[in-house]
Write a sequence for this structure.
């Protein structure tokens, strides 16, 4: 009855209508299909009584009422749909996505199991936890976990063979750095390596993460987001693990079996390493399903940190006492800069680059500047100490980090100021941060590789 | 005359269960049937019907299956279950009670006054 032309036009209208329906979170694919069938029934009937196709479509849509009302009614029956659920496998609407998520799950289980098993591998060669292998595990633990996470990410992104080669080479370099130098178990360098090797290797994971486009600023920003979410998930899993361990300990104690050895030798190390991979998989799987939490925490804590730092500056000026710069203090102020940088990074990561500057950006500027002022005060104190007493690996590493963070924050402050005054676009700040990432990686590698020989394995 | 929304909602479940009791059906056909039965007086919307069908399915009163009709179109058919039939019987018993009581009041025992004696048009 309808000409093919009219039919095409109507199909286009149906497609458009479908799109509108699919934008509604309350309405799932199957609901959309059911409603479309209803609409088509209505249209067919109207055409049968003599309306033209386009008229029939209009009347039928009008009769169905507004989508707002419709989705409100659906929401009353299906309130759970307003909570986005992270489905672990399948059950998504499209079969392609379902197979993909199932394959991801399998790969994650393999990598997680690999990580958990690999930490027990050295025991076969006489490197048990009981034996005096503290130094071995302190410097090597990240080498048991992060390659598996990188493998999972590289697999997921179908990394090119060349990149896989680079990843392998870098992890091999990590093995060398952790084991080749003759470091005493109580040397400062062991602690430095234990701290810096995971950082260096994390950037190798980053390399696997941005596999498809190494230079892209957007992809690097994605990696920063990934890092934040991964950390949050990891902490959550660790908390869950703590509860599990507490119950395991309590219940087995109650029947006279002490699970100490099992917990400390198996559950804790294996669970820890598997959690590294599982957290990475969770972030990948839930991307776009659950809102990112790191930016929310940032929003919450930026004003609070700003207030504390400003209060500190006021109190410092008031009492006019010097800062007591011990090694702990230096580390503390380093961590402070890391936190401020984190607050900056995660608010950048969640910000719409096109939005005009607002109150929050001014607050951020105040935060960065106050952190900078505090740091300069500390730095002045420190350099005085070092020139007086000479340096150690710890002091050199802490100082180097301080300078790196200071440089980053100083330029960031300048860019934020420019942005607040509408002189520079927001993208400049984003590019500065993502372009700076290799600096951290390079410094971590320097501390791991160059410091021990430089300070004669102190 | 339009039936009030609350009354439509209250009668919705027994009505849909009753229609499904006549045989397997789908959304559009159910709406058509309701229209037919009430002479167009019952104002049913899709927003009332489909969530209700989903609720009946969740409660186990009905089960659904997708069947393909002409070409690529698929249609979701609903079928009443044994549990649904039991619920229908229970609802019927309740509605009979209500209807009987109303009749008793409006018509009186053995009183065969025609219904028109009651002012229906409100304050005209």
């Amino acid at each position: 009855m309808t000409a093919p032309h009219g039919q095409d036009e109507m199909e286009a209208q149906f497609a458009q209508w479908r799109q509108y329906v699919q934008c509604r979170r309350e309405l799932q694919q199957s609901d959309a299909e059911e409603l479309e069938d209803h609409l088509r029934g209505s249209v067919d009937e109207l055409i049968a009584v003599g309306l033209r196709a386009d008229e029939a479509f209009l009347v039928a849509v009008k009769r169905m009422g507004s989508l707002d009302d419709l989705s409100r009614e659906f929401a009353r029956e299906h309130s759970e749909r307003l909570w986005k659920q992270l489905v672990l496998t399948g059950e998504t609407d499209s079969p392609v996505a379902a197979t993909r998520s199932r394959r991801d799950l399998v790969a994650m289980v393999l990598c997680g199991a690999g990580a958990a098993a690999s930490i027990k591998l050295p025991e076969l060669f006489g490197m048990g936890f009981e034996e005096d292998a503290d130094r071995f595990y302190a410097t090597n633990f990240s080498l048991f976990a992060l390659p598996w996470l990188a493998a999972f990410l590289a697999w997921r992104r179908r990394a090119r063979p060349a990149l896989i080669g680079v990843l392998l080479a870098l992890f091999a370099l990590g093995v060398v750095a952790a084991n080749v130098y003759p470091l005493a178990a109580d040397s400062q360098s062991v602690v430095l390596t234990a701290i810096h090797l995971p950082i260096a290797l994390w950037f190798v994971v980053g390399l696997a993460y941005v596999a498809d486009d190494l230079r892209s600023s957007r992809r690097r920003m994605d990696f920063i987001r990934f890092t934040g979410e991964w950390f949050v998930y990891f902490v959550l899993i660790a908390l869950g693990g703590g509860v599990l361990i507490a119950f395991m300990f309590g219940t087995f104690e109650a029947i006279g079996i002490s699970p100490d050895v099992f917990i400390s030798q198996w559950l804790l190390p294996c669970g820890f390493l598997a959690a590294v991979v599982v957290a990475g998989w969770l972030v990948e799987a839930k991307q776009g399903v659950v809102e990112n939490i790191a930016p929310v925490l940032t929003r919450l804590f930026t004003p609070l940190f700003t207030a504390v730092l400003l209060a500190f500056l006021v109190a410092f000026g008031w009492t006019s006492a010097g800062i007591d710069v011990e090694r702990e203090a230096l580390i503390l102020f380093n961590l402070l800069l890391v936190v401020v940088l984190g607050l900056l990074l995660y608010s950048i990561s969640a910000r719409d680059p096109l939005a005009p500057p607002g109150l929050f950006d001014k607050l951020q500027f105040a935060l960065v500047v106050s952190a900078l002022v505090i740091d300069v005060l500390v730095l002045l104190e420190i350099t005085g100490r070092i020139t007086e007493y000479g340096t150690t690996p710890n002091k050199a590493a802490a100082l180097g980090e301080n300078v790196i963070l200071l440089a980053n924050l100083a330029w960031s402050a300048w860019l934020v100021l420019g942005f607040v005054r509408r002189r520079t676009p927001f993208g400049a700040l984003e590019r500065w941060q993502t372009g700076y990432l290799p600096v951290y990686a390079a410094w971590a590698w320097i501390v791991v590789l160059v410091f021990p020989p430089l300070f004669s394995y102190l | 005359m339009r039936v009030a929304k609350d009354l439509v909602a209250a009668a919705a479940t027994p009505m849909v269960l009753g229609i499904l009791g006549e045989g397997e059906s789908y959304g559009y056909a159910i709406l058509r049937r309701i229209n037919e039965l009430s002479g167009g007086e019952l104002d049913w919307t899709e927003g009332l019907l489909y969530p209700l069908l989903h609720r009946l399915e969740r409660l186990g009163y009905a089960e659904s299956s997708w069947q393909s009709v002409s070409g690529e179109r698929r249609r979701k058919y609903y079928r009443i279950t044994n549990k649904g039939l039991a619920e229908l019987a229970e609802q019927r018993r309740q509605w009979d009670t209500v209807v009987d009581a109303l009749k008793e009041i409006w018509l009186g025992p053995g009183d065969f006054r025609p219904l028109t004696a009651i002012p229906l048009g409100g304050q005209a």
About this structure: Chain A has three domains: 4-82, 90-180+193-291, 293-424. Chain A touches chain B through 20 residues (CB under 8 Å).
